[in-house]
């Protein structure tokens, strides 16, 4: 997907922007890759994932009874990316969904910043929809 656009800074896979996870499933999710589009400097990047309002009755990751949990990849700092380079290995974001999760779709927002602290979405942002499907 980076080859399609030389200015693309962030890619989420699957590129359909939708990942389907069964109730009770563990370790499924999506991948994140970042490109340094700076032509002069080698830089580090940090991303952070948060839940956005979606079609679920409550916030899936918080709320009184969270029914989904990001078990790996919620925050990540790349090593130094050389100018114009892409992360060698995309970072996997793994989500666990409870057996009793409602059948719904929620959105996870990926915010990328330069440096080692994720303060906003100053470098790039994108979203991944997570659809909870029956077992």
Write a structural description.
By secondary structure, this protein is mainly beta. It is 0% helix and 44% strand. Strands 2-9-8-4-6 form a 5-stranded mixed sheet, with no helix packed on it. A 4-stranded antiparallel sheet has the order 1-3-7-5, with no helix packed on it. The N and C termini lie far apart (31 Å).
Provide the helix percentage. Answer: under 10%
**What is the succession of H and E elements?**
EEEEEEEEE
Characterize the overall form: elongated
Strand order of the largest sheet: 2-9-8-4-6
Q: Kindly state the mean pLDDT as a whole number? A: 92
Largest beta-sheet characterization? 5 strands, mixed
Distance between the termini: 31 Å
Taking all Cα atoms into account, the compactness measure Rg is 15 Å
Query: What oligomeric state do the depicted chains represent?
Result: single chain
Strand count: 9
Structural class: mainly beta
Percent strand equals: 35-45%
Would you identify the regions where 5 or more consecutive residues have pLDDT less than 50? none
Please tally the helical runs, counting DSSP H or I stretches of 4 or more residues: 0
Task: Write a brief structural summary.
This protein is mostly beta strands and 135 residues long. It has strands at residues 10-13, 18-22, 28-34, 45-52, 68-72, 75-77, 91-97, 105-114, 124-133.
């Amino acid at each position: 997907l980076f080859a399609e656009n030389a200015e693309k800074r962030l890619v989420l896979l699957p590129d359909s922007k939708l990942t389907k996870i069964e109730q009770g499933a563990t370790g499924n999710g999506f991948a994140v890759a970042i490109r340094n589009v700076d032509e002069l400097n080698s830089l580090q990047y940090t991303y952070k994932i948060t839940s956005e309002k979606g079609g679920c009755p409550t916030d899936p990751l918080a709320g009184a009874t969270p029914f989904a949990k990001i078990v790996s990849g919620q925050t990540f700092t790349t090593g130094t990316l050389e100018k114009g380079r892409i992360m060698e290995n995309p970072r996997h974001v793994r989500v666990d969904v409870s057996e009793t999760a409602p059948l719904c779709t929620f959105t996870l927002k990926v915010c990328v910043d330069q440096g080692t602290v994720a303060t906003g979405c100053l470098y790039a942002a994108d979203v991944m929809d997570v659809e909870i499907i029956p077992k």
